[in-house]
Amino acid sequence: MIYAIPYQYGKISVHFARAKQIMLVNDETGKTEVVANPAARNPSSESRDQLIQLFRMNRVDAVILRHIGRCMLKSLFNDGLKVFRSPEKTPLSEVFVSELTPIQELDQVQAASENRRMCCSNGAKQHQHCGDGEGGHQCCHH
Question: For residue range 11-33, what is the model confidence (pLDDT) as tens digits?
Fold first, then answer.
């Protein structure tokens, strides 16, 4: 299985789409590769599509992450990717597939409206939402 992991500063990035790089790990061959994240500079529907295309080109089967917005999660689900949450503060070298929590529904992540209190002091002015009203989080200062 090939996994994509948001990667920054030698560890799993806290924010999926904002990670500077994506580490691709093939658990059958042991091969790893670090590639630039096309969504890191400007999270949008276009960059989200570029990230999904990167996963397709590299035959990614699953994503391991810490936090993700609903729009991005929906895109991963629509492309048939499995999604797993890594335990908080676990070093990348200590992440074991058997200890990951599967994310199988959009309700398993917080909506942007729930994130506003914890993230942006400017509220809705600094957030963009995906077109279906599900609420994707795009924050002003990450």
Answer: 899 888 889 999 999 999 999 99
